[in-house]
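User: Structure with zinc ion, tokens only please.
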Amino acid sequence: MTTRMKVLQKLDSVKDPEIPSVSVVDLGIIYDVKVDEGNVEVEAMPTFSGCPALDIIKRDIKEAIEAIEGITSVEVKYIREPIWTTDRVTERGKVQLKDYGIAPPEERSGDEWRVPCPYCDSVYTTMDNIFGPAACRSILYCKSCKNPFEAMKPVAI
Ligand SMILES: [Zn+2]
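Assistant:
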């Protein structure tokens, strides 16, 4: 197995601290991994510039890769371009988000959000509060089953 593959495999165990069920790979945060002998450089995409989790994710990525045999240095940097969007979340990531009670990002039709409720799948939902507990998420309210739930913002603005 190449070092790059080992790094990617290891990154699969690094989770977003705010969404512990989904790995940084499935969230689409990892943009590129460059390996030059024992030196690894990871380019990551911030999901949202204000997310306090970013420093923790950076540290966790570094620690995970440093644990691989033969790695001598690890650099993790956040890139500004291209911008992360929820389109980068993998199919597996979307399922895991839903299992965690966070509505996976949906396609946008025009300016409307269509976010199905993670509990009953109804799309009869309303945005209750654009500012969720984390800046990258929002609180929505399901008008069918009356549950509030969290959704990821469809794009990182
Ligand atoms: Zn519902």
